[in-house]
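Researcher: We plan to redesign the surface later, but first we want a full-length starting point. Tokens attached.
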């Protein structure tokens, strides 16, 4: 099953922009569904409450409907991705 990532962000947030750029680069290497959610939208507020998010950016990894990991910084994202996707075949090559 394809992994899903929830990316909670805010406009005019430099950390959010860096994380988003990194996610776009990672899409070239890994196969995942990315759902971008503005923290200031109604859906963003509901998602933040559901997952206990208090700061943005926040990346939540979902597999089979269950949260499997989360991170909030670009460096964390680069470390966690190979671990999360270690048993996944790259379908984008």
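Model: Full-length starting sequence:
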């Amino acid at each position: 099953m394809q992994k899903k990532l929830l990316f909670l962000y805010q406009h005019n947030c430099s950390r959010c922009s860096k994380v988003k750029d990194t996610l776009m680069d990672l899409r070239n290497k890994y196969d995942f569904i990315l759902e971008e959610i503005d923290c200031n939208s109604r859906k963003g507020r509901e998602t933040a409450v559901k997952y206990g998010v208090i700061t943005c950016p926040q990346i939540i990894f979902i597999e089979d409907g269950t949260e499997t990991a989360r991170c909030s910084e670009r460096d964390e994202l680069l470390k966690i991705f190979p671990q999360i996707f270690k048993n996944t075949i790259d379908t984008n090559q």
